[in-house]
Amino acid sequence: MSHFLTSQLDPERLCEALPLLRLALPGLDELRWAAHCEDLVRAGGGVLAVAAADGAFHGVALYRPQSDLRHGKVLRVDMLVAYELSPASPVRAALLAALEDTCRNVKARGMVLVVPDTALGTIGNRKSAPFERAGFRSEASLMWRAADQYREIGTRKRAHPA
Question: For residues 60 and 47, is the Cβ–Cβ distance under 8 A?
């Protein structure tokens, strides 16, 4: 069984997360990544990282608190990348547990997770056609979960994080 450590990524280690983020965004360069991180921190957010015992990153999540018209204060997760070697998804589970703790710490009502359409298979539906004709393209879907609805990945049981 693998054990992972989840932590807030320090500014001097941000460059170490770049190769993992490039799995999701192949063209991401160092300057753009650094500027985005500065914006996240300025907005009260940050970068969570999951590392194995040897210090190698297996997952990162970019988050920031924000006001949402539907839900009030939320924790918006703009990017969640997990390099999984197990169908049990321990890296993703560790990131989501840390995000849930962060959600509680900033007193948000829940999380909004931005999921790329390629991950959901939702590209090109009838409802998006008028926008696509106007030059827009679908890149992601938003998923919502209330703060008190934390559940373990792959189960219907409510988790009780420590």
Answer: yes
Q: Is 5-149 assigned to CATH 3.30.450.40?
A: no
Contacts of residue 115, defined as CB under 8 A and 6 or more positions apart, other chains included, come to 140, 141, 142, 143
CA-to-CA distance for 2 and 87, rounded, in angstroms? 13
What are the extents of the domains in the chain? 5-149
Strand extents, DSSP E, the chain: 5-8, 46-51, 57-68, 72-82, 110-116, 140-146
Q: Which residue has the higher pLDDT, 161 or 63?
A: 63
Position 150 confidence tier, pLDDT thresholds 50, 70, 90:
low
Reduced to 3 states (helix: H, G, I; strand: E, B; else coil), residue 47 is strand
Q: Taking the C-alpha atoms of 156, 68, 83 and 119 in order, what is their torsion angle to the nearest 10 degrees?
A: 80
* Alpha-carbon distance values, 162 to 24, 98, 99 (Å): 30, 11, 13
How far apart are alpha carbons 78 and 126 in whole angstroms? 25
- DSSP class of residue 153 equals T
Residue from 72, 79, 128, 117 nearest 99 by CA: 79
Distance CA 57, CA 80 (A): 13
Residue 162 — pLDDT band, cuts 50, 70, 90?
very low
